[in-house]
Amino acid sequence: MKALLLLTLSLFSLSTFAAPKSELWQYWNTSNEGTVIKVNHQKWQAILDKYLVSEGENTLFRYRSVSSSDKQNLKDYIRELSSINPLKLSKAQQYAYWVNLYNSLTVDLILDAYPVQSITKLGGLFSFGPWEEEVVVINNKKLTLNDIEHRILRPIWQDPRTHYAVNCASLGCPNLQTQAFTATNSEQLLEQAAKSFINSDKGVKVTGKQVRLSSIYEWFATDFGSQSDLINHLARYRPELSSLKGDFEYDYDWTLNEKR
């Protein structure tokens, strides 16, 4: 009976998963373009340098190998970011701030729960992953990962490439970038991430007349526009896709992006 209940709950979670809408949290839509403040992301970069490895079309994280001191360094980095008032930063600084915060929090959640097969196993009994859990406090406001992605990053910047920047610790996700985002490299990293994902099988796989896209393009269709807009977006980074037409299939691999 217990096994049947767990199976039912698992199927329920998978079948009812739906991506949140982009809904602006107006409080965060303020910046200071005249600031001289610069956020230091070196601790996050040190973690990436030490534990993120490229393998085939993926970047994989060596969760098993993270030392106790580096786990603490990661928590220190998150605490440092949470002590900053992002409203005092420029828009360019803010974008890097929120992307790095999202990605570092995700890695921290996996490390706290490790070993785990998928991020979808985190969260409460009736949860599909940890995205609705309050995981950080900024300006005395409790934030979830969904708040950062869907109430701040997506509605403020309205750039579909953000989906290639935030990482959900899964093989189906656009790769966690090997470089921390900064105010000066975000555009380069976004272009690099988009090109890499769209030219990978997990982004777009064409087999004869069959076209399988990442479920990202289905979940967040409103961000990519009409089918014609989406095809133009894909073809920008992979020109041969300009001739795509017809119905697409969608797929996503929630397996942990772990280097074993």
From TrEMBL:
InterPro entries membership = DUF547 (IPR006869)
The source's superkingdom equals Bacteria
Tell me if Plastid is a UniProt keyword of this record: no
Listed A to Z, the keywords are: Signal
Domain DUF547 residues, every copy: 88-198
Q: Which first-to-last residue range defines the signal peptide?
A: 1-18
PANTHER family per the UniProt record, alphabetical: ELECTRON CARRIER/ PROTEIN DISULFIDE OXIDOREDUCTASE, ELECTRON CARRIER_ PROTEIN DISULFIDE OXIDOREDUCTASE
- Under what name is this protein listed? DUF547 domain-containing protein
Traced from the root, the source organism's taxonomic lineage reads:
Bacteria, Pseudomonadati, Pseudomonadota, Gammaproteobacteria, Vibrionales
